[in-house]
Amino acid sequence: MSERAAPPAADAPSPRPLRVYVNERGVDVPPGATALDAARAHDPGEGDAVAAGTRLLTDSRGLPVDPASAAYGGAIYRLVPARRPAADAAPAASESSPERP
């Protein structure tokens, strides 16, 4: 019995990239990439803003997407400004208007 060596890895076909869409622009990411990786492939600065929490990723319907979720072929992501909760965005009523007797 003769032992055969495994073929070199270079002969194995490389996995095909996934085509995803970020703000209507198609980008290619490797299999195993995350939604954040897709945002960074679109624009590294926007990806950093998502990581910092100043931008959010949403799906095509506007629903939030976890940046750590797996990207998949044909995914549509939108980058939107992160909004502060309403309680943080506006001063309390007692702070914004004078009290009446």
Over the alpha carbons, how many angstroms does the gyration radius reach? 23 Å
Structural classification: alpha+beta
DSSP strand content = 15-25%
Overall strand count? 4
Order of helices and strands: EEHHEEHH
Approximate shape = elongated
What is the second-level CATH architecture of the domain at 23-81? Answer: Roll
Mean pLDDT: 84
Unreliable runs, pLDDT <50, ≥5 residues? none
The main sheet comes to:
4 strands, mixed
Q: Helix share of residues?
A: 10-25%
Instruction: Note the total helix count.
Output: 4
Predict the CATH topology of the domain at 23-81: Ubiquitin-like (UB roll)
CATH class of the domain at 23-81: Alpha Beta
- Head-to-tail CA distance between termini: 101 Å
Strand arrangement in the largest pleated sheet: 2-1-4-3
